[in-house]
From TrEMBL:
Residues 42-172 form the ATPase AAA-3 domain. It comes from Xanthobacter autotrophicus (strain ATCC BAA-1158 / Py2). This is ATPase associated with various cellular activities AAA_3. Belongs to the MoxR family. Residues 252-314 form the ChlI/MoxR AAA lid domain. Keywords: ATP-binding, Nucleotide-binding. One of its GO terms (molecular function) is ATP binding. InterPro entries: ATPase_AAA-3 (IPR011703), CbbQ/NirQ/NorQ/GpvN (IPR050764), ChlI/MoxR_AAA_lid (IPR041628), P-loop_NTPase (IPR027417). It comes from the Bacteria. Pfam families: AAA_3 (PF07726), AAA_lid_2 (PF17863).
Amino acid sequence: MAHESAGLARAFDDLAAYMNACILGQPAFVELLLIAVLADGHLLVEGAPGLAKTKAIKALARAIDLSDQRIQFTPDLLPSDLTGTDIYRPEDGTFRFQKGPLFHNFILADEINRAPAKVQSALLEAMAERQVTVGGKTYRLDDLFMVMATQNPIEQEGTYPLPEAQLDRFLLHVRIDFPDIAAEREILRLVRGEARGVAPDFGPPLPQEVVFAARRAVAAVHMAEPVEEYLLQMVQATRHPELYGADLEGLVSFGASPRGTIALDRCARAHAWRRKRDYVVPEDVQAVLKPVLRHRVLMTFEAEADGVTSDDFIDLLIARVPVG
């Protein structure tokens, strides 16, 4: 069993190396994308245009034997543009269901916050239940199904804020920053054709069963009771921050939900597994705290007015919640 897990770990190491060769200067984003795959969850990515968000999902789809689909979200999008619709067949007077783009394995929902509420509702059903409902009939989506949604932090005009229930369905909320100057130099040389070597080639795509086997290996990673207690205390601290300092009182209007606890557990195990450990340490929990909780912790108006972000709040919790 250990030999099988080692083989799976090598496969994901090769996958990470391939992704980092395709997407220069974003190793943290690549790692969180792989954690989302291993933890079987959806990803909300926030970053300026031109940071290879679309390229990332396409590279991942090339490396794993699956299909991908990009959907550009716009204000005039309809739910049927995602789910598909019943098409009338005049030759026999019947209706036939024509599948929409959600019937792929990896979905890139570009600028998700530009779509209206009914479209968000249709996507929420797909994310939460792995199914779509059209004309009173329910259609199952593939077992390997993942949504990577993007938001542009620059333009807010004409956008629809995502409802809290939908935000909670995202396993991770990742923020991508600009690459450093060395990575940007490599990007420039690659575009000019001056970069050394050839374009990365992953070889034969990984079968989907490798992903499912890796998920089983991640689920088997051991979490000792003291680490589990630390994880639970971290989530509880988002709901009752005043227990860790009078200055934290009044910063949070809503803490993380139990779904956040489950997400933290799964992502901490995936983080440990990626580091070749069969057990979780507190540092694994801390490493994934921000992407798991930043969209699940709602700051009060007063906190926002003072410039305190959810990331700042999580940093305070890491410093104050005792380990063990």
